[in-house]
From TrEMBL:
<dbReference type="InterPro" id="IPR037522">
    <property type="entry name" value="HD_GYP_dom"/>
</dbReference>
<dbReference type="GO" id="GO:0016787">
    <property type="term" value="F:hydrolase activity"/>
</dbReference>
<dbReference type="InterPro" id="IPR003607">
    <property type="entry name" value="HD/PDEase_dom"/>
</dbReference>
<dbReference type="Pfam" id="PF13487">
    <property type="entry name" value="HD_5"/>
</dbReference>
<protein>
    <submittedName>
        <fullName>Putative Metal dependent phosphohydrolase</fullName>
    </submittedName>
</protein>
<feature type="domain" description="HD-GYP">
    <location>
        <begin position="112"/>
        <end position="306"/>
    </location>
</feature>
<feature type="domain" description="HD">
    <location>
        <begin position="134"/>
        <end position="255"/>
    </location>
</feature>
<dbReference type="InterPro" id="IPR006674">
    <property type="entry name" value="HD_domain"/>
</dbReference>
<keyword id="KW-0378">Hydrolase</keyword>
<dbReference type="InterPro" id="IPR011051">
    <property type="entry name" value="RmlC_Cupin_sf"/>
</dbReference>
């Protein structure tokens, strides 16, 4: 890939909340030396830098990272390294174990990343204080959405918007009263109308932080292809690709996790089949990919999946 050099042979490192931690060790003029901690099952992505003179170097201190290049991952083990210089599109990193990287850049990036992460923490704290299920659900939806988007459209430059919208699609639930959000029984029509406002509240919270496009994607996660969804009853191609992906990821996680008002969760296989069986509601191309990922075992429950 142009701009990527492996084993010693820019861009900015975007962090998914609680998937990575960044520590600044030293700084002189524009050069920064940092330690990047990636936690098990993390998905992190490197995107082209605004400044074309940016170069970033990564050295694996412990664990390993998989560089997801098209459909073929390249594993960088302990002692391995790579750098990015003139990167043209995103590179995705994954790891299934805690991994520590030495991260060196010739341009000051730490303050930008730290400030960005602070905004994410502020939003997610609102959700976690309200409802821990929603907090965990948001992370699952983000991971499933990234997996689907990467395989459907690996060359598109829209992953940042997708991830931010998926991670914060339910942040508006911080305004839903506890007695409704955590009610174990069926909601009344009036209570459901309150729940139906949360995509609008999510969009309102996201707009000043991430812009209108991210807000619009998050707002559409309960819209359905036949127009039966909410809050606006959008249909077909009026729902963005990212919105259709998050809608499937959101429903899939809701079906496969235990919630206060549902019976036992369904298996991944059963949930994927059900979503695929509803072409009036869900995009069939995305649903077919979800089913294929589950069938192949690429998408499987984690040990702590409830």
């Amino acid at each position: 890939m142009e701009g990527l050099f492996i084993n010693g042979d820019g861009s900015q490192l975007s962090l998914g909340l609680e998937q990575a931690h960044l520590t600044l060790l030293a700084k002189r003029q524009d050069m920064e030396v940092m330690v990047q901690m990636l936690y098990a099952h993390a998905t992190v992505w490197i995107v082209p830098a605004e400044d074309e003179d940016t170069m970033e170097f990564f050295y694996v201190l412990s664990g390993h990272v998989d560089l997801m290049l098209e459909s073929t991952p390249i594993t960088i083990p302990v002692g391995g390294c790579f750098h990015v210089d003139g990167l043209k599109r995103e590179v995705y990193l994954q790891t299934d174990e805690d991994t520590k990287l030495l991260y060196v850049t010739n341009k000051p990036l730490f303050d930008n990343v730290f400030g960005y992460q602070g905004n994410l923490n502020e939003l997610m704290t609102k959700v976690d204080e309200k409802d821990n299920y929603t907090y965990s659900h948001s992370h699952n939806v983000m991971e499933y959405s990234v997996m689907l988007m990467r395989r459907l459209f690996p060359d598109q430059q829209r992953m940042d918007d997708l991830i931010n919208a998926a991670l914060f699609h339910d942040v508006g639930k911080c305004y839903v009263p506890d007695e409704i959000l955590k009610k174990p029984d069926r909601l009344t029509p009036g209570e459901f109308r309150v729940i139906m406002k949360h995509p609008l509240d999510s969009a309102r919270l996201l707009t000043p932080r991430f812009g209108k496009r991210v807000a619009e994607i998050a707002r559409s996660h309960h819209e359905r292809l036949d127009g039966s969804g909410y809050p606006f009853g959008l249909s077909g191609n009026d729902i963005s690709l990212e919105g259709r992906i998050i809608a499937i990821a959101d429903s899939f996680d809701a079906m496969t996790t235990k919630r206060v008002y549902t019976a036992a969760p369904r298996s991944f296989s059963d949930a994927a089949e059900e979503i695929y069986s509803l072409p009036k509601l869900y995009d069939q191309k995305i649903a077919a990919l979800l089913r294929a990922l589950v069938s192949s075992g690429e998408l499987a429950p984690k040990e702590d999946h409830i």
